Structure formats: structure tokens, C-alpha cells
Amino acid sequence: MNKKQFINELERNIKGLSKEDREEIIRDYEEHFEIGKKKGRKEEEISISLGDPRQLAKQAKIELLVSKAEEKKSVRNIFRMILATIGMGFFNLIFVVGIFCALFGVIIAFFVAGFAIVLSGLVLIIVAFLPTIDLFYIPAFNSVSMFFGGITLISFGMLFTIGTYYLGKWFSSITIRYVKLNIKIVRGSKK
Amino acid sequence: MDTQFKKGVLELSVLSLLTKKDYYGYELVGNISKTIAISEGTIYPLLRRLQKEGYLKTYFRESKEGPSRKYYQLTKKGIEKEKELKIEWKSFEEKIRKLIE
């Protein structure tokens, strides 16, 4: 494989990365070829010692996606990272996709529940100030108890939402850590 | 030598070399592959990761022959990391030595 073939093969396998990242990766290997040639080595010789460009592309891709997911733990970044890892042949991560989707659903549901509790508290407070309250004729449902009940619900809903936020963060870190553990293994097992 | 083993010490080797002076990619790769038989290309993704994690920074310098070269330099964080990994390595080495003697 000469330099051109090597770079083409590399380029083909790093699609999906940003333009700057792609240019940087290509630039590094081009520099390597140029200096090698200055030292009197053949292009074919250099590409053999560099290794399989497809493997290198995958390695570069996964390293970038992991650091991106660590930087910004968004659902999109974590999902892309998992997919790229599966692309490297880590089929055990297919299970992670399932778990990730399920837990993501649970977290969304918790958020909705948290907001609903806050909302119901607000409604209770509003109702406490309405004259229609007398229609119930139940002593426990008087304005004062409804007002305090409303405040309790709002605080509980807020705490619940904050708790869910931290649960989500924790869950993201765990996912990233698990993927990193897998890449550690691939870094080791690959020639 | 076991490849898993090689890859584990790669990070330490890169950081250690860079404590002595700033290297450009080709030079760094050449130095390491003299000691550890490895696909030379895998060092570049490692360098990029170390840079992203803030252990290295890069700068370009013109060379008399050919295009400008990218040099790698340790950051403060990188110097700390190198010390940390070296201590880990030495204690590991010590344990293995006791085990095999």
C-alpha cells in the first residue's frame, strides 16, 4: 500500500467525525510519511510499519468519541460512542444500547413525574385561594391544609427532579466507564 | 512479549520520553518502536487522546527539510501523570520480581 492508498483508506473510515478532527488525523499520518521518505524509506515500507489504516481509523474514532462524551455527557454523544464501539467489534455493547435506552426512558419518566408533582402542588395552592373550596364540606380540605399541602408537594417534586438529574449524571458516567473498560481491552488485544 | 502488556506501558513510555525533551511524532514513534514492537500508527491516536485529556500540548516548528513538524510537549498535568504512572509501574515491577525470583 502506498501513501495515497493508505490515506484514502484512512479517510474512508473516519467519516462521521468533524472536519477539523479528520484533517488533523490525516495530517499526522501525512507528516509521518513525508519525514519517513526524507529518511530514505519507501512509502510501502512506512505504511506496513504504521499498520492497518482501517484499524487505525476506528481507534482514532473511538478515542475522539469517548473524550467528547466525557466532555459533554449528552445522550447523543454517549449514543455515538456506544455505536462506534460496537463498530469495533464489541458486540457485548449491543446489550448496553438496550439498557441505555430503557434507563433513558425511566429517567425521562422520572423528570415528567417530578414536574407533575410540582404542578399539582401549584394547582392545590391556587385552589386553596378560590372561594369554591367550601363546596367540598370536608374539614381536612380547608384552605390552610391545602396551601401547606401544596407547598409540600412543590418541594417534594423539586427534590425528586434534582435527584433524577443526579441519577442521570451518575448513569452517564457509568456508561462511559464501561465503554472505556472495553476499549482498554481492545487496545491490549490488537497488534 | 504479550501485546496487552505492551499497550499498557505505551502511555508511560510516551510521557517519560517527553519529560526529557519535546518530540515530533515521527521521532517519538521511532524511539518507542525500537523498544516495543508495535504498529507504529497506534501511537498517534494515543497522542491525540493524551492531548484531549490535557496531558500534552502541541506546536508547529518549521524544519529545513520538508513541511513543518508537529511537536508534542508535556503540560503540568502531564508531568504529574508521568510521575504517578512511574510509581505505579515501579511497584508493579517490584511485586512481579518478588513473585518470579
Indicate the topology.
The complex is a heterodimer of chains A (191) and B (101).
Chain A: H1 3-13, H2 19-38, H3 43-50, H4 53-71, H5 75-87, H6 93-128, H7 143-189
Helix pairs in contact in A: 1-2, 1-4, 4-5, 4-7, 5-6, 5-7, 6-7
Chain B: H1 3-20, E1 23-24, H2 25-35, H3 43-52, E2 56-61, E3 69-74, H4 76-100
Antiparallel strand pairs in B: 1-3, 2-3
Helix pairs in contact in B: 1-4
Write a compact overview of the structure shown.
Chain A has about 190 residues and is mainly α. Chain A is built from 7 helices and no strands. In chain A, helix 1 packs parallel to helix 4 (about 55-70), helix 4 (about 55-70) packs antiparallel against helix 7 and helix 5 packs parallel to helix 7.
Structural class of chain B: alpha+beta
Query: What's the number of domains of chain B?
Result: 1
Low-confidence stretches of chain B: none
Query: What is the oligomer described by this structure?
Result: heterodimer
Largest sheet of chain B: 3 strands, antiparallel
In total, how many beta strands of chain B?
3
How many helices of chain B? The count is 4
User: What is the strand arrangement across the widest sheet of chain B?
Assistant: 1-3-2
The share of residues in helices of chain A is over 70%
Count of DSSP-assigned helices of chain A: 7
Description:
The complex is a heterodimer of chains A (191) and B (101). Chain A has helices spanning 3-13, 19-38, 43-50, 53-71, 75-87, 93-128, 143-189. Chain A is 81% helix and 0% strand. Chain B has a single domain (10-100), classed as Arc Repressor Mutant, subunit A (Orthogonal Bundle), CATH 1.10.10.10. Chain B has four helices and three strands, in the order αβααββα. In chain B, strands 1-3-2 form a three-stranded antiparallel sheet. In chain B, α1 (3-20) packs across α4 (76-100). Chain B starts with a helix and ends with a helix.
List descriptors.
heterodimer; A: 191 residues; mainly alpha; rod-shaped; B: 101 residues; alpha+beta; Arc Repressor Mutant, subunit A; three-stranded antiparallel beta sheet; 4 helices; 3 strands
